[in-house]
Write a structure and sequence with these properties.
With about 140 residues, the protein is mainly alpha-helical. It is built from 5 helices and 2 strands; from the N terminus they run ααββααα. The chain has a two-stranded antiparallel sheet.
Length: about 140
């Protein structure tokens, strides 16, 4: 290499197998996201070549699914990055969606807590009744 010269940046790319392994997804799931237009890998013949943008979008999809967003909502959030008002609008919208999802989960948690308390009470009554029945013999 000649002093002062650098090699050109070679963009990192990933195969479907690499991304499937990294994110714990099936190839079919990744192809489904492609069919929905959530990601758009380059096609080289029959081979899909995923660029950084695809990897980032896939990471956002996985994160969104993990916190319970449906795919159409994930698409809206991701697509907002490239639309007016851009990233700031995307972030404001995402914060609103997170607040709504959090409120939903808090309600579900309260329902679960009530159900667990009812189960514990019923379990205690059953244990007490069973003890009485066993003692009566």
């Amino acid at each position: 290499m000649i002093a002062g010269m650098t090699t050109p940046d070679i963009e990192t790319t990933w195969s479907i197998a690499q991304l499937a392994d990294e994110f714990g997804l099936t190839h079919r799931t990744i192809r489904h996201y492609e069919e929905l237009g959530l990601i758009s890998p380059e096609r080289r013949g029959t081979v899909r070549v995923f660029h950084r943008r695809d990897r980032t979008r896939l990471e956002l999809i996985v994160r969104g699914k993990r916190i319970g967003f449906p795919l159409d909502e994930i698409r809206t959030i991701i697509d907002m990055y490239d639309e007016t008002p851009g990233e700031s609008g995307q972030l404001v919208y995402l914060l609103d969606q997170i607040a709504a999802r959090r409120a939903e989960l808090e309600l579900r948690r309260a329902d679960i807590d009530r159900t667990l308390a009812e189960m514990a009470s019923m379990e205690q009554r059953c244990q007490a009744d069973l003890s009485k029945l066993r003692g009566a013999r």
